[in-house]
């Protein structure tokens, strides 16, 4: 029977959300929306030792910024709440007990010191210690203690954990929606702790109980969780619950070399691995974020979507809606996906070109205000329109447009060398032409100046380069007559005069 689609993103708030985690959230979101289902976020904060203040708020803010906020989560449509595992603590013990009763789990009293010693002994012989069917009948647990003794020890307040009793001699043939059939030999699994001495469930128990109670239909998560899949499937069997479908997403790989993308790669090559800037509450260390670097959320969504998924066409640019329409878990690759910071910038450049000019103008206006420049927003918007094709980030707008607002204070040395002895005279003549020009629209000034040049057989280079140098201070910038039209007659002439005086 097919059930309603409900998928989840289940981060542990142990720090800022890594970009790989964002990709997991995105694929869950896309899958949910594509199938008219629900995307919810559950906070897996049962490990109190690893709890980091601010991390939960950070995760939600990041998804909000990217436009992929969950439909249900802490404080939002809490139909299956609470959505924080720490607030569901009271729930899990009962399920652990259920497994004890049905013989799927057992109490274990082995102290940390005892287990450490066993581990050491095995290591000395070049082996690894696994707590499982091979030795559980010799260790200190409810399988080797009588029922009375076990009850007594628990009543005495002795510390214990609850372990899963993994079935023996079984090859599990499991289905992963991305990988197809995956096989696991139960004899190689360890009897994982489900419930700890501190009264808290471990990730495995809490995750399965909640996925069941919250009616999760599909578990879409990173490849690093694939080894947990057999235990999870066995837990569903032990509880007699219908298991969700599983899909394990490919790793995100370093831009160069092999291995998983890490924060250190980002530090080394100068790109963020987090969606938003993060300040570590204990060390104060700041990690850069895509948002603060000036990336547009659409660009981040787009490059993340293509990390491990392809539409099967040549299309590279996808809006979120288009992604929802084309997304298909069947087209997610098994192989890891290489992170490409340069390509990410290319995506930002594409979306930057599509960004609303007025919105960008407001951003540029902030810079102008800081510099004490006051210009109407219409003017700033026009400036943005003229220079944006050269920009990838809003932060580049000022450098690309400074000359629209301020006269140059110096001149590019190399370009200034081309200021010939006769240039001043030609520029004086040009001033005369400009003074007599009434209509200062781009087209009209361009026509007037070019006609004058043609009629007097003055070569283009003789005028255009010195003119640009006078107005901009270098040979860069957009169409020269656009600049002239924007700054106006008076300012144009003033700048040419200044250049004549300075560049003798
Ligand atoms: N809390 C786990 C994590 O931090 C969730 C893994 C899963 O999706 O099952 O990624």
TrEMBL record:
One of its GO terms (biological process) is glutamyl-tRNA aminoacylation. It is an enzyme of class 6 (ligase). ATP binds at residue 263. Residues 377-500 form the Aminoacyl-tRNA synthetase class I anticodon-binding domain. GO terms for molecular function: ATP binding; glutamate-tRNA ligase activity; tRNA binding; zinc ion binding. Residues 5-344 form the Glutamyl/glutaminyl-tRNA synthetase class Ib catalytic domain. InterPro entries: aa-tRNA-synth_I_cd-bd, aa-tRNA-synth_I_codon-bd_sub2, aa-tRNA-synth_I_CS, aa_tRNA-synth_I_cd-bd_sf, Glu-tRNA-ligase_bac/mito, Glu/Gln-tRNA-synth, Glu/Gln-tRNA-synth_Ib_cat-dom, Glu_tRNA_lig_a-bdl. It is found in: Cytoplasm. Its main location: cytoplasm. It catalyses: tRNA(Glu) + L-glutamate + ATP = L-glutamyl-tRNA(Glu) + AMP + diphosphate. SUPFAM superfamilies: An anticodon-binding domain of class I aminoacyl-tRNA synthetases (SSF48163), Nucleotidylyl transferase (SSF52374). A motif ('KMSKS' region) lies at residues 260-264. It comes from the Bacteria. Transmembrane segments: none annotated. GO terms for cellular component: cytosol. A motif ('HIGH' region) lies at residues 11-21. Its EC number is 6.1.1.17. Belongs to the class-I aminoacyl-tRNA synthetase family. Glutamate--tRNA ligase type 1 subfamily. Catalyzes the attachment of glutamate to tRNA(Glu) in a two-step reaction: glutamate is first activated by ATP to form Glu-AMP and then transferred to the acceptor end of tRNA(Glu). Monomer. This is Glutamate--tRNA ligase. The gene is gltX.
């Amino acid at each position: 029977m097919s059930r309603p689609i409900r998928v989840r993103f289940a981060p542990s708030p142990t720090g800022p959300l890594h970009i790989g985690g964002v990709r997991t959230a995105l694929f869950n979101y896309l899958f949910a929306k594509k199938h008219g289902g629900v995307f919810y976020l559950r906070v897996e904060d049962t490990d109190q030792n690893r709890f980091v203040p601010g991390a939960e708020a950070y995760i939600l803010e990041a998804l909000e910024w990217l436009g992929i906020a969950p439909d249900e989560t802490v404080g939002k449509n809490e139909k299956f709440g609470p959505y924080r595992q720490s607030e569901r603590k009271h729930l899990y013990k009962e399920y652990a007990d259920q497994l004890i009763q049905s013989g799927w789990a057992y109490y274990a009293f082995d102290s940390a010191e005892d287990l450490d010693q066993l581990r050491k002994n095995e290591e000395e012989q070049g082996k690894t210690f696994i707590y499982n069917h091979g030795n559980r009948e010799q260790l200190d647990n409810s399988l080797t203690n009588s029922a009375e003794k076990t009850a007594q020890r628990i009543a005495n307040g002795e510390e214990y954990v609850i372990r899963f009793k993994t079935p023996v001699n079984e090859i599990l043939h499991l289905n992963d929606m991305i990988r197809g059939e995956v096989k696991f030999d139960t004899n190689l699994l360890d009897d994982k702790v489900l419930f700890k001495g501190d009264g808290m469930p471990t990730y495995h128990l809490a995750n399965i109980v909640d996925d069941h109670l919250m009616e999760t239909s599909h578990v879409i998560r990173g490849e690093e969780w694939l080894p947990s899949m057999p235990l999870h499937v066995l837990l569903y069997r032990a509880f007699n619950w219908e298991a969700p479908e599983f899909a394990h997403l490919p790793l995100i790989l370093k831009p160069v070399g092999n291995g998983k993308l890490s924060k250190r790669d980002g530090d080394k090559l100068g790109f963020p691995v987090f969606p938003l800037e993060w300040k570590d509450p204990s060390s104060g260390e700041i990690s850069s974020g895509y948002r603060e670097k000036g990336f547009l959320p659409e660009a981040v969504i787009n490059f993340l979507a293509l990390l491990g998924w392809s539409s099967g066409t040549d299309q590279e640019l996808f809006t979120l809606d288009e992604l929802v329409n084309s997304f298909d878990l069947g087209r997610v690759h098994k192989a890891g996906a290489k992170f490409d910071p340069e390509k990410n910038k290319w995506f930002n450049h594409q979306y930057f070109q599509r960004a609303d000019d007025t919105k960008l103008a407001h951003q540029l206006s902030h810079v102008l205000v800081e510099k004490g420049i006051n210009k109407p927003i219409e003017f700033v918007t026009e400036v943005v329109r003229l220079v944006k094709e050269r920009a990838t980030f809003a932060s580049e707008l000022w450098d690309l447009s400074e000359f629209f607002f301020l006269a140059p204070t110096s001149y590019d040395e190399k370009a200034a060398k081309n200021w010939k002895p006769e240039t001043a005279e030609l520029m004086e003549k040009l001033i005369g032409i400009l003074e007599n020009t009434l209509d200062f629209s781009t087209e009209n000034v361009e026509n007037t100046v070019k006609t004058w040049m043609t009629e007097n057989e003055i070569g283009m280079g003789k005028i255009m380069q010195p003119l640009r140098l006078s107005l901009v201070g270098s040979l860069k910038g957009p169409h020269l007559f656009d600049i002239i039209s924007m700054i106006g007659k008076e300012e144009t002439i003033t700048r040419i005069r200044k250049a004549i005086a300075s560049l003798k």
